[in-house]
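Narrative of activities, Objective 1.

The group set out to show that a structural description can be obtained from nothing but a protein's sequence at a throughput compatible with the screening campaign. Below is one input-output pair from the validation batch, recorded exactly as produced.
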Amino acid sequence: MTRSANIPRMNDDARKSLGKRIRELRETLGFSQIDLAKKVGKQSAAYIAFLESGERNISTIDLMVLAKALGTTVSELVGEQGSSKKVQFMQALRNSGDLDKEDKQKIMQYYEFLKSTKGEK
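Output recorded for this entry:
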């Protein structure tokens, strides 16, 4: 038996849901697909595009690396637990139509700074 035969695959709905969360977090952080691909050690934006469209399965290791690059946890990324304060903040920031991409990035950096001074995760 091959190793991959022991690992359950995500169904289409789960892949699409994961892809949607990846895209939302990526856009909130102001990353392009190529920016995120490079952060997770990939050479091409196509990898992220396939994940976001739900057309590709993802390994556990890649899922862990991706969650870290997006500033979240695997559980939150796959929708197994409620959103953390950070994810809720990022979603609110993403939905604020009055701010441009640069302003959102600055606010996110400030949020990270404040969080680090409080020791919050």
